[in-house]
Amino acid sequence: MALLICAPDRSNQQLAHDLSERLPNTDIRIWPEIGRPEDIVFAVLWKHPKDLLSQLPNLKAVSSLGAGIEHLVDDPTLASKAVPVGRMAGPKLALDMATWLIGRVVADWRVFDEHTHHQSQQRWVPETPRATPVIGILGMGQMGGQAALSFSQLGFQVLGFSQSGHGPKTIPVWSGDAGLEHVASQSDYLICLLPLTPQTQGILNKTLMASMKAGSVLINVGRGGHLHEQDLLDALSKGKPRRAILDVFQQEPLPAHHPFWKHEQIVISPHCASITDPQEAAERLAQSYEAVLRGEPPLGEVDLALGY
Amino acid sequence: MALLICAPDRSNQQLAHDLSERLPNTDIRIWPEIGRPEDIVFAVLWKHPKDLLSQLPNLKAVSSLGAGIEHLVDDPTLASKAVPVGRMAGPKLALDMATWLIGRVVADWRVFDEHTHHQSQQRWVPETPRATPVIGILGMGQMGGQAALSFSQLGFQVLGFSQSGHGPKTIPVWSGDAGLEHVASQSDYLICLLPLTPQTQGILNKTLMASMKAGSVLINVGRGGHLHEQDLLDALSKGKPRRAILDVFQQEPLPAHHPFWKHEQIVISPHCASITDPQEAAERLAQSYEAVLRGEPPLGEVDLALGY
Fold first, then answer.
1. pLDDT (tens place) for every residue of chain A, 308 residues total
2. How far apart are CA A107 and CA A181, in angstroms?
3. Sign, CA torsion A223/A226/A229/A235
C-alpha cells in the first residue's frame, strides 16, 4: 500500500518528509515516480495530470492539497471512481484567512496609506472618525464562516450569503439572487469566499457590482473564476466598488501586461491570503491516510457533485 | 444643578447636543461659559485649566473625556476634593483599539507593503510563509485585556504584563521587572497599552529594548511618556526592535522637525488608534451624570492615586 503526492507545480520533498515522520511505515511516493500503480490507495493532489487516476486501480480516496477542489471536479475519472474526496481546510487555515481579511479591511478603513502619505510630508493630520463598516461575506463554509465569526467578535456587523442559506448561528445569512443583491447593497466591504462551481463562476459581475454601495470595497479571496475581470474595470470607473482587493486571478501568476497591475483602485497580492501551514497539512494528510486505511473518509470530506 | 464640559482643545458643541438629547432637563454648559460655578455638580474634562476645579464648590464627580486620566492626576485640586473620577474606556473603544492593533500587526506580518512594492513593479512574488507571531501586551486593563483576548481569538499566542499580574483568565500574565523582561524577550510584536503613571513613565527604554527579540516590532499606543525617544533611535539602529509603530508622542502634534518623521523604521499615526465614538461617549457620560445624581460613582471609575 502506498500514498502518492502529485502536485506538479510545487516542490513536494518537504511534505513527503513531514508525512514520513508521521507515517513511518508508509510507502510515500512523489509523482512522476509513482512505482507500481496497484500499490497506491491514497492520492494527495494539486492540479494533477488528467490521465493519472485511470492508472490507479486500487485508489480508495483522494485529498486536495489546497482548500479548493475545482481541479478535482474537473477530472471526470475521479467522479467515475466514486471514492471519497477530502480537502485541506483546517481551522488554522480558516483563522489565517480571517486574520488576513481583517488586516486588509482595517488597513483600508483606518486609512493606513493616508497616514503613510502624511508621514512622508511630515504632516500631522488627525483621522476623521468613520463608522464601523458592514462586512458582507459570500460563502459560509469553513473559511467564510470563520471570517464571519472573527469579524463579528471585533464588533463589525456581518451579513452572510450562501447557496443553502446555512451559516454560523450568530450570523444572519441570505441566499438566492435577491439575498445576494441584499448583501451586496448593504456591505461596505464585500468579500468572496465561495467555492468555485458552475453556479458561482463569474458571480462577481456587473449585475452584482451595480448593486454595491458607492464607495465600497470588493475583496476576492475565493478563486479567479468568480470575478468577471472586464466588468470590474468598468465598475471601478463608476466608483462601485471604490477599490478591489484581489488575491486570486483568472490566470496565475497574473500576466505581466494585465491591466490590473497598474490600476490605482486595485490592490494585488499573489494568492497568499491563506497559506497552508506545512505542519498542519502534513498532520491532516497523515490523519486522512489512517482514516482511509480504517475504511473512513479523509478529513474535510467534500461533495464532488456540489463542488464543495 | 449643571453639567460642565471643559475640553479647550476640542470643539464641544456636538457633544453638548448629543448629551442634551439624552438629558433633556439638564443644564449643560461649555467652558469658558461656566455660568454660576455653584451649579456645577459634574464636570467632563480633557486637559482643563488647572485653576478650574477650585472654582466649583459643589462638584460631586468628574469624568475624563478620554481613556487616559494623566491630565486629571496632574491637578492637585482634584485630589484634594476627593470626588470620584470616571473615564471614557467603554467596550467599543477597547474593541476599536484591538481591531486597529490587529490591522497594524497583520499589515506588517503579512508584508502588505512588500506586495504594494511588487505590484508597482508588475511582479508576482509569492509570499514566504512566516510562523504566526507572538504578541506581547503591556497593560492588562480594559484596553490591554481586550486586545489580548482579540489577538488570542485569532490564534495568536499572547503574553501579558501588568503591574498587578492580573489579566483575563485565558491569558498568561507576568509582572515585575523580570516579568517585563520575559514578555519583551519572547514577543515578535510588543504593544504598550499601559496607563501613564510615575511607575510606567519611560518604561519603553534601552533596558527593555535590549531584551527584545532581534527583528521584533515595538508598538506604542499608550502615551508618549511611556517611550524614551532617544533610546528608541539608538535601538532601531541595532535592529532591536526592527520597526516601531507609534501612535502617541511626548509632544503632540509631533513637531515638524522631529527625527521620527523621516525615519524609515518608524511608522507614525496621529494619535488615532482608538477614536472615541461620539455617540458612545454621549451615552456613557449621560449614564455617568445620572449615576452621580443618585449618589453613585461615574462609569469607568478609576483610582486617582494609582493613576488608572
1. 999 999 998 889 999 999 999 999 999 999 999 999 999 999 999 999 999 999 999 999 999 998 889 899 989 999 899 899 999 878 888 999 999 999 999 999 999 999 999 999 999 998 888 889 999 999 999 999 999 999 999 999 999 999 999 999 999 999 999 999 999 999 999 999 999 999 999 999 999 999 999 999 999 999 999 999 999 999 999 999 999 999 999 999 999 999 999 999 999 999 999 887 788 899 999 999 999 999 999 999 999 888 88
2. 26
3. negative
> Rounded CA gap, B274 and B100, in Å?
7
Indicate which residue of A29, A87, A223, A228 is catalytic: A223
Q: Which residues in B lie closer than 8 A to residue A189 (C-beta atoms)?
A: none
Per-residue pLDDT tens over the stretch A116-173: 999 999 999 988 888 899 999 999 999 999 999 999 999 999 999 999 999 999 999 9
Residue A154's region, left for phi above 0, alpha for psi from -120 to 50, else beta, is alpha
Best residue in A96, A99, A266 for a mutation probing chain B (most B CBs within 10 Å):
A99
Cell numbers that stand for B252 in this block? 503632540
A243 in reach of chain B (CB within 8 A): no
B176/A contact by beta carbon, under 8 A: no
Domain formed by A2-88+276-293, architecture: 3-Layer(aba) Sandwich (3.40)
On whether the CB atoms of residues A66 and A76 are closer than 8 A, the answer is: no
Contacts of B53 (CB under 8 A, 6+ apart): B43, B59, B62, B75, B77, B78, B81
Closest Cα in chain A, distance from residue B135 (Å): 14
**Residue A66 confidence (pLDDT):** 86
**Contact, A38 vs A191, CB < 8 A?**
no
The dihedral through the CA atoms of A198, A201, A207, A213 has a sign that is: positive
CB A234: neighbour CB atoms within 10 A?
A: 12
Percent of chain B scored above 90 by pLDDT? Answer: 88
| CATH code for the structural domain at B91-268 | 3.40.50.720
Residues of chain B with CATH 3.40.50.720: 2-88+276-293, 91-268
Query: Distances in Å between the alpha carbon of B263 and those of A119, B231, B236?
Result: 10, 14, 10
C-beta neighbour count of A139 within 10 angstroms? 26
Query: By C-alpha distance, which of B192, B195, B144, B185 is closest to B168?
Result: B144
A233 near A246, Cβ under 8 Å? no
Q: Does the beta-carbon distance from A154 to B92 stay under 8 Å?
A: no
What is the rounded CA–CA span in Å between residue B233 and residue B217? 13
Cα separations in angstroms, A152 against A91, A93, A194: 17, 18, 19
Listed residue (B120, B164, B132, B126) closest to B145, CA to CA:
B164
Say how far apart CA A160 and CA A166 lie, in whole Å. Answer: 9
Beta bridge partners of A40: A2
A60 φ, ψ (degrees, to nearest 5): -105, -25
